[in-house]
Amino acid sequence: MNAIIVDDEPYVRQMLKNLIHWDNQSLNLVGEYFNGQDAYLRMKEDDRIDLVITDLRMPLMDGLQLIKETLAIRNDITFIVISAYNDFHLVKEAFLLGAKDYLLKSEMTEDHINQTLSNLRLNDRKKLAAASNKDLMKESLLSRLTAESMTASDIDSLKDLLCNREKKRFILLLLRLNKVDASAATPEVSMKNTISECLSPTEEILASSSQAQVEIIQTSPLEYLILALYAPQESETCIMNHIRYAMGTFRPSGFHVNLGVSRTSIEFSSLPQLLHEARLSVDYCFVAGNGSVIPFTPQFEETPSRLSIDSRLQISILKDQLSAILFDKLKPDIHKLLIAPQTVCAGQIRAIKELYMQYHFILIDFAMQNGLHGELRALSKAYEEHLKFYGDMNSLNKWLSSVIAVVKAHNGENSMINQVKHYVEEYYAHDISLQSVANKFNINSSYLSRLFSEKGDTTFTDYLAHARITKAIEFMKISNLKIYEICEKVGYTSPEHFSRTFKKMTGKSPKQFMDGREQ
């Protein structure tokens, strides 16, 4: 099958060319265009184009006009539209015009793009031809529901397809797979069938299992919309028991299963509202914890009152806590930073996720400025590759606690090094040694030696020698003291030892240095 890409941004066209598995999808790229007008002229003259991947905002002719004009002369062409998040209203219009799917620019990963293409079943003309019009219509209508572009006529059509003039009680589910770790693979295409099998009617739970049916579409690589229909007399309790039982048997390897459940209804006109409820419910799994089944409650739509997410205040608190750790001004209190799950409502989830993203940015910046990047590299990677996308509140709070613990441990040791250095610079003229300083600070001399080597980038002995010789050079420059007098003033009892150390550090003997000073 032949495909073209239409986008006015060269980097987007290049990214699509690189990420699409052209051979696996049985696709040939036969053209790329930076505006809709040129693409339209090509398709007007060439009837071999099967697929168009197009941006919606372009010069000369935008994506919506391209879809409308092209499908007026060629209704067999499949359109996938590309959109920015803040242009999603245009995606709804594209679906009304006949687009089959969409890609958000912020989510255009290799897996997502190829899963979207696979879902269209473009790579198997025979399968597409053999599929019943009824199945294709159901899938198309449910896709429109997902895109929030369903009209009253679409709702009536879906009702006719699914109910055959019988009354049904139905419920909408949003099933979201969250990876257990960053290494988990994208779900197999067969995952949809597995979900369907798990939701098969159960006579032991349902009063009229023969009248139950399930319709599923994949809305993203890790999310599925499920419309479950039951006999009208089936109670909501039995329906929920069936769903919970089904989810108990669905345990895909490498994934947490989060499920948002709407209320039940017998009116198909309520489908958009039920979708809204299912989305709020599955989002709340972020608060309840990965692996939750969350039925909708009206409280999810209530205006937050118990907790206001003040990002500026929280960031200020984080910076104060880091300052407290850095300068030992006060004992840090991690609980001021953590958001307690029991205080959160559904409307605050997006703000909380954004807050933890800001936490990560501040912490990594702090790490870079204070030599902590190495210690925090693994924790930063865990956030960037996994927790940012699949973490729940509990795992994010544990991550933040771990980061603060690393900072405290690092700075506790650095604080000790700084205190020892300050002591050496003040008492260099005294008879001090590794052991005497260790005794002074009530620590083991071997530990102090290791700490200096690892955190101070030098040994204690070398640091003491450097402090004494630096001071000796100052005396040589500003005074008329004799070498033996300077030797005693900087803490050396042996002139020979002083001379050897001086030459090792400066390349000259004390006498040579002083002679050179006089020239």
Strand order of the largest sheet: 2-1-3-4-5
Rg from Cα: 34 Å
SS field, number of helical segments: 22
Sequence stretches where pLDDT stays below 50 over 5 or more residues:
122-132
Taking the sheet with the most strands, its summary is: 5 strands, parallel
Describe the structure.
Residues 418-516 form the HTH araC/xylS-type domain. Residues 2-120 form the Response regulatory domain. It holds the Pfam family HTH_18. The protein is of the alpha/beta class. The chain has 22 helices and 10 strands. The chain has helices at residues 10-19, 36-45, 63-73, 88-97, 110-119, 125-130, 133-146, 152-163, 191-198, 236-249, 271-283, 285-288, 311-327, 349-369, 373-390, 393-427, 434-440, 445-455, 460-478, 483-489, 495-506, 510-518, and strands at 2-6, 28-33, 49-55, 78-83, 101-104, 169-179, 213-220, 223-230, 255-261, 293-295. It has a 5-stranded parallel beta sheet, sandwiched between helices. It has a 5-stranded mixed beta sheet with strand order 7-8-6-9-10, with helices on both faces. α2 packs parallel to α3 (63-73) and α13 packs parallel to α14. The longest helix is centred in the last third of the chain and has 35 residues, at 393-427. The chain is elongated. It starts with a strand and ends with a helix. The relative contact order is 0.05. The model is unreliable at 122-132 (pLDDT under 50).
